[in-house]
Amino acid sequence: MTEGNSWPPRSSSVEDFEPIGVIDIGSNSVRLVIYEGAIRSPAPLFNEKVLCGLGRSIGSTGELGADAVARALAALRRFAAIARVLRVKNLQAIATAAVREAKNGPMFIARGEVLLGTTIQILSGKREAELAAQGIMMGFVDANGIAGDLGGGSLELIDIAGSNLRQGTTLPLGGLRLLESSNSDSDNAAKISNSEFSKVDWLADGGERDFYAVGGTWRSLAKLHMARCDYPLRIMHGYEIATDAAIELCQTIRQAKKLSSVEGMSVVAKGRQEVLPYGAAVLECLLKKLQPRRVIFSVFGIREGLLFSLLSAIEQARD
Question: What is the pTM for the complete model shown?
Fold first, then answer.
C-alpha cells in the first residue's frame, strides 16, 4: 500500500466526514440522531428519542395537545444543545403527519425553529413515503417489494424496485390515530385498516415480493418475535419473519384480552405497548392483502432516507 493512501478509498464528497444531525418530529416521538457524516453507510454517534405523543389528540381536536407540545419543545431545546456540544454544523429537522395536519402546527414549527436555529421541513405524505423508501435503499442492496413506514399518525406505502420508486401513498393508519378512531378497539382498527387498503389497487403488485417494515411499533413486533422464538442475536436490521408467522403473531396481539398475558411481552417498552395492538392490526390486514413472500424489518427509515437524498449519485450507487 502506498504511504499516505487510505483503505478503503473514500469519495471526494465525504473527505471531511463532518457530523450531520437529523431531528425527526413524529406523531409519537421526537428523535435526534447524529451521524458521522453524509456517507453511504453512516455510523450513528448519538441517538435519543422522547415519546411526546404530538398526534394523540389530532383526531378529536384537530390540534397538537398543550402537554405534548411542551414535551416536544423541551426535547428540541435539549437536542439543540447536544448538537452544539457535538459541533454539528449541518442540522436537518423534519416533521411528519401530526404537525402537517394540526391547526396549530405552524405555531409549533415557529417556536421549534427558534429553539433549533434552523428550518423545520414539514414533509408531505408523498415526500414522507419517498424518504422511507430511500431509507430502505440505504439499508438494503437491490430492494424489491413494498415498504411500509408506520408512524403515530399515518402509514406510508411505496413500491421499490432497485433504484426505482414506483407507486406510493399515505394512509391515516398511524398507531395513535387508530387508537382514537377505533375507540380503543383493535378489531375496529382492523376494519378501518381493511377499508383503507381496499382503496389502494396497486397493492396487488406486492405479491411474492418482500415487505419492508419500518417504524418503532413494527420493530417492537420483531423484538417480541425474537423473544418468543429465543432468537440468539439481537440485531434488528434485516430480521425476517415468514408472512404466515407474522400474521399469526399480529392476530395473537390484536386478540389478546391483556397484553401482559402474551408470551415475551416484557421485552416491549411500556411506551410502545399501548399502540402495539393497533400496529399489529394494520400489519395483519396489510399482509393478508399483499401476500408477500416474507417480512423484513428495517431500522433505516425517513432519517436515513433524508441522508441518502443528500448523497451524490456516485455515493448512492456504492454497495
Answer: 0.87
